[in-house]
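Reader question, answered in our methods column.
A reader sent in the components of a multi-part assembly and asked whether the whole thing could be modeled at once rather than chain by chain. We filled in our standard form and ran it. Here is what they sent:
COMPLEX SIZE: four components
ENTRIES:
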Amino acid sequence: MSLLKPRGTYHHGNLQAALIAAATQMVRANGAEHLSLRAVAAEVGVSPSAAYHYYPDKDSLISGVGQELFERLADLQEAALSQFPGKSAKAARARFRALGRAYFDWASSEANLFRLMFGGFCSIDFAEAQIKRQESRAWNLLCSCLDDLQASGDIKKTIRPYGEILSWSTVHGATALIVEGHLPAASFESVLDGLELSLGIGK
Amino acid sequence: MSLLKPRGTYHHGNLQAALIAAATQMVRANGAEHLSLRAVAAEVGVSPSAAYHYYPDKDSLISGVGQELFERLADLQEAALSQFPGKSAKAARARFRALGRAYFDWASSEANLFRLMFGGFCSIDFAEAQIKRQESRAWNLLCSCLDDLQASGDIKKTIRPYGEILSWSTVHGATALIVEGHLPAASFESVLDGLELSLGIGK
DNA sequence: CTCCAAATCTGAACGATGTGCAGATTATTC
DNA sequence: GAATAATCTGCACATCGTTCAGATTTGGAG
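And here is the structure of the entire assembly that came back:
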């Protein structure tokens, strides 16, 4: 199903999905703060009012975009984990690092989308259920990764209870600071090094 | 000098400062994404065009607000540090914790201002010099705090080189995630506990 | 003190935006 | 095939950022 409404027809056929797709591309290019509902509608070949049948306002459209992005990010993390299968301590450690790197790589290659997700553009009310679900999916991936490290005795015992919260906070913080230009991009690897060291990962 | 232009006068007398002050209050209340240049001008008692004498566009006004906020944050951190003077290891540790808490407390009590600072609203170009200066002021406070901990042998040697970058990333990440509703507020203290533990602070 | 230039502010205007509403068009159901 | 629901259009309105010509005031030079 194409994004553009077929000429001469009245019904689009797939408007909601097309709106999200077009909005996503436009946010990716120009940032969520410059998204125009009218431009999205025009891109899709539909009148501005048509969007209001699926979203009560522009913010909800944006939240809809965010909803999909959180799913995409969880997928990405899943893919990162599956790159290093196996039960060895080495593999577990590689998975941990891959998880952090995937988060950062995604954010820096799609800065505008990352901002939309974590910059307060998604009204948590609207897409709360779906977003929370995808977020806990990603959270569980991180948990299992840390569990694997724990199983191979590759993480300091006293610190283990803080593992998830510390890892996410640190990786997210470094990512956000770098994306917004407050830290140089090169420092992300240092952060990963320091995080592993401080958690006692990899000896 | 009042915010409102004295009635019957033509010149305001303190427009630039008044614009920043009014804009700050409005962002504080409604968020930077809902700031209206016209509303700011009206609040100050001036025509919308008057603002363009001091800022080439709305984004620059917002950057001007951000500029002041970074200064205010650095002041806040300075105040936090001075709450626990002394050379003892205990005092140094209290300073480290106070630094993190000040960052978080400020952010959660002024979520909209925090978002303005770190959410990509400040065009780094415009206020780059001044913002970077205040940021490095805060950075230096963190450095000296970690130096103190190092002096009292209260931080793991191998981790020390990562101290600043890890601390800022972790505290900023946890703060941002909590402010945006991705983590419960209560988890911030856990993050601080975990951070100290993982850095080897306080034994 | 006077006059001129620079600084500061106004007013009206333009195009674009988000949104509401009445009604047109198409799909669905009986 | 007719009634009902789903979808979409067209127009309107208020608001917004921004521009620009010109009004008003200030400050300094003569």
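What stands out: Chain B has two domains: 1-54, 57-199. Chain B touches chain A through 41 residues (CB under 8 Å).
Send us your own complexes using the same form.
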